[in-house]
Amino acid sequence: MSTIITQRQFPHYRKYEMDLAGRPLTLEVGKLAELANAAVMVGYGDTRVLVCVTASARPRDGIDFFPLSVDFEEKLYSVGRIPGSFNRREGRPGEKGVLTSRVIDRPIRPLFPHDFRNDVSIMATVMSVDHDCSPEICGLIGASAALAISDIPWNGPVGAVKVGLVDGRLVLDPTSEERKVSDLDVTVVSTGKKVVMIEAGANEVDNDTMFKAIQMAHEENQKQVALIERMVAEIGKEKFDYPHADFDEELFEKIVAATMDEAKAAMDTDDKNVREARWNVLVEKWHELFLDEYPEMDKYLDEITYKFQKKIVKAWLLEGHRVDGRQRNEIRPLGSEVGILPRAHGSGLFTRGQTQVLSVVTLDTLSANQKLDTIWEETEKRYMHHYNFPGYSVGEAKPARSPGRREIGHGALAERALLPVIPDVETFPYAIRVVSEVVSSNGSTSQGSVCGSTLALMDAGVPIKAPVAGISCGLIQDDDGGFTTFIDIQGVEDFHGEMDFKVAGTKKGITAIQMDLKNDGLTMEIIKDALEITYDGRCQILDQIMLPCIAEPRKDVSRYAPKMLTMHIDPSRIREVIGSGGKVIQKIVADTGAKIDINDDGSIFIAGVDAASCDAAKKCIDDIVFVPEIGALYYGRVVRLMTFGAFVELAPGKDGLVHISKLADHRIEKVEDACKIGDMMWVKVTDIDEKGRVNLSHKDAVREIRAKEAAGERAK
Q1: Whole-angstrom distance, CA of residue 553 vs CA of residue 86
Q2: Greatest mean pLDDT range, 224-233, 364-373, 512-521, 523-532
Q3: Which of 19, 160, 360, 462 could form a disulfide with 457 if both were Cys (CB 3.0 to 4.6 A apart)?
């Protein structure tokens, strides 16, 4: 009996195409991952990212939040590499993968129904990488398209694009070579009407240029939105009905009516602990008034609290009243200190209201650079910024855990903000790590870490190009489209507001932006207002608080930091410095106590506990690679006498011959009449023959020295 084989058909396969920044963008559906709610293979140039979305059939019980998970999987086969781990397979996502997951999550999360409680999973798997075509943008577009055509309730679609600034010209989705010289890297995500996310790093770009880049991206995104809407019209599934999250509106209205005055009094303070204590008393009153009538009220308490506080905060902000009594453009009391930790290489404490961040700098040799095993072009990091957010910072009793996505994201934001002002390796040959410890949190700790880290870097003697400060801007909108922005949001304003627009930069321009939203997007008017108010805020912070604390980087690094020297040799001589099996360099390290890093281009970085060990190591290397120059003068030791002349050592292992006729300006019978072993003498290199033998002259050296001395006397 013969086997029967039928050719597999894909009747639902569709391919949609458009042009994005001069390169083909394709969205393919109906062939892969047919059991997911929807799957899209995004092609952009040679980049391929498979995005699959799935949703649970029923809501998760007992939760008061939307359980969305977004994973961006970096498969190293996409760049033709085998993972460097012991198991030779991908492990937990790298930092860039985590950050990309956050970039996908942030713009799509607010567009889900507020009472949706079904688990939703978005998986973006990078399968092929063309470094000219961003996998990050592919993941965003794929997630938008997959959600839009699926049966999962969602109020998209969105489009996404990057903008660079190359030679003063704004460029859509810059290529790999353009990114290397670009002064801007901004990712903008938009719906058909508004901007829903901005993520930017920049080399001190001014507000007007940044605003134009955002406008340009928003307009370009409309092409993607139109393409995805066409997909929805042709192949989109009908959205499924879901059980709406349970909430007792009747109880809520009764609580608001009965305790509004007490709630306002509880909220009206700038002290987070006082506010929470007052609110706990208020909750007890709710129990007294309504528990008998509503015995299940406890399961609604968290949502009642959220809605009640939001109602108060929103009304106040629209009236121009803030929870702590500040004006919309007023920053909380600030403080700056440096040199907090005596043994650290640099430290800075920045305080804004009840938010405090202690940043600490460590300097090390370049061998401490972080090695990266990812799909991206970057292979190592010289500047590292880590952010920690312990439970005690918000008054919670919880054990320490490894950093989560939020901690990684905030550390990366501060790193991006400060990277443009970090000196290059030739100017400052150190690996640099900054750790920002959030010791108290009441809003905008990421921007507090930017300020604290600037202080710490200057305290450590890192010659940053300009000091950087960060500030956040919030937003409240009314039902008629009117809006109010306000600077330096504290925790309660962040929690109940509609925007956290973080901007970091120097007085010259922006170095980083991160925008988080809880509404359906921002108009260009709001964005422009936010850029202006944050610029004024960071200039005040720099001028009035940070620079009076420390006006410029210290002239020298800490005495506890390693001392560094740099030198450069002919790359062909590297083998001599290292020696067979590393014997030569190991001996230099053992003899001097210095650490030595050698690059393939001949750059050598020497670190020691003091300058003397660095100088000693440098002299050893100088001696190894020493090459005498014809016409140059050297002061050397006589090491060997022959009947025809004396050999003078110019450097260890490097000597030359002074013929008997060149030992003096008069005739001598024997070499011993002019010198003996151990004598020091000036010699001039007169010739180097084809075999590398060096010929020297003592009498020519003496004549040249006397001539220079005479010229000096005449000049006087």
Answers
A1: 42
A2: 224-233
A3: 462
321 versus 454: the higher-pLDDT residue is: 454
Residue 167 structure tokens: 């030679």
Model pTM score: 0.84
Task: Taking residues 672-698, report their average pLDDT.
Answer: 91
Which pLDDT band holds residue 678 (cuts at 50, 70, 90)? very high
**Structural contact between residues 359 and 336, judged by C-beta atoms closer than 8 angstroms:** no
Please give the average per-residue pLDDT across 38-54, as a whole number. Answer: 96
pLDDT (tens digit per residue) in 629-671 = 899 999 999 999 999 999 999 888 789 999 999 999 888 889 9
Contacts of 559 (CB under 8 A, 6+ apart): none
> From edge to edge, which strands make up the β-sheet containing 23-29?
14-20, 23-29, 38-44, 47-59, 118-128, 68-74
**Rounded to whole angstroms, how far apart are CA atoms 124 and 70?**
8
The two tokens of residue 668 are 């001598």
More confident residue, 384 or 398: 384
Other CB atoms within 10 A of residue 57 CB: 8
Query: How far apart are the C-alpha atoms of 259 and 282, rounded to whole Å?
Result: 8
H-state helical runs in 268-331: 272-290, 301-318
Strand 355-364 versus strand 431-440 pairing type: antiparallel
What's the pLDDT tens digit per position in 264-277? 888 888 888 888 89
708 vs 714: CA distance, rounded Å: 10
Q: Is 635 exposed, middle or buried (0-12, 13-18, 19+ CB in 10 A)?
A: exposed
Give the CA angle between residues 681, 685, 690 to the nearest 5°: 135
Q: Tell me the sheet residues that pair with 350.
A: 336, 357
Could you tell me which residues are beta bridge partners of residue 159? 190
Q: How far apart, in whole angstroms, are the C-alpha atoms of residue 396 and residue 421? A: 36
| Sheet of strand 603-608: strand arrangement | 563-568, 603-608, 595-598
Burial class (CB in 10 A: 0-12, 13-18, 19+), 379: exposed
Structure tokens at 688: 């180097």
Distance CA 455, CA 348 (A): 5
The first and second tokens of residue 523, run together, are 């108009």
Check: CB of residue 134 under 8 Å from CB of residue 44: yes
Supply 367's token pair: 């061998």
Alpha-carbon distance of 148 to 191, in angstroms, equals 12
- The pLDDT confidence band at residue 380, using thresholds 50, 70 and 90, is confident
